[in-house]
Prior knowledge:
Number of helices: 12
Structural class: mainly alpha
Shape: globular
Distance between the termini: 25 Å
Order of helices and strands: HHHHHHHHHEHHEH
Helix content: 40-55%
Largest sheet: 2 strands, antiparallel
Radius of gyration: 18 Å
Amino acid sequence: MGCVGSKDRTGPVMSPRRRNSITGNKITLALIKKIEGMRGPDGVIKYPSLNKVLLKFAKIERVLKKIHMIFDSFDVDKSGGIDLNELADAMVKMGHECSEEEVMDLFNQANVDGAAEKDTGQQVLDKREFMLCLAIGYVIGIIPLIASPKGASVAQPATVQAIDSADLHLGDDVLEGSSQEIHDVMQLIVETYLIFDRNATGFIQKGLLPKTVDELGRKGEGGSNPLLSEDRWKEMDWDQNGCITFEEFVFSFQKWVITDQIEED
């Protein structure tokens, strides 16, 4: 799940395989728009303070635990995992009816560990992967409630069907009344990711991290900040090839925030 091609840290690094899928390409394009949206009137991109991100961990943890409860409501057969059909149904309930190709691609994009149910061998998403689905949906704008929970006018992909205010209210009930909170947390996680992927490529090159960390240090955000520890970055780069995808970052970020271990069935 990392970079394809040369592992020479001084040479060019080709994009990870996950960037070449339909959803992967959408993520990259959407990240470019997100980072441009962070640009202030003076033309300078306003990145969040890592120290302030740490102070918001309690709020993020609370929202992530709500997402885990939402996961349970979508896990119709109570198997402990969401299969392809359950994900398709969940997307409809959240306001977007995906084509079979779209839901399959989204499922594969979020299925970072390739886990399957013991009894059936069927591929399923666990709680962290479901949260990653929501993060992807937020980034590429296919879940209207999360993309624009207050009903603000935003440009949505052509595949997103228009939904009226009654449908929005119904969808918010599906999200346990937490659409605004989920939106805010997704936005914070994405903006935190973009601190390290300043070209919005959809993956972080570990070889460039020292420069970013040095810049953060000059702003008083280095030192003991756990988000900058070497151990954190090692656990994200699963295949040790020098690149960390957006999906790997979001998946790992949850582990940093949740203080109580998530029990998987």
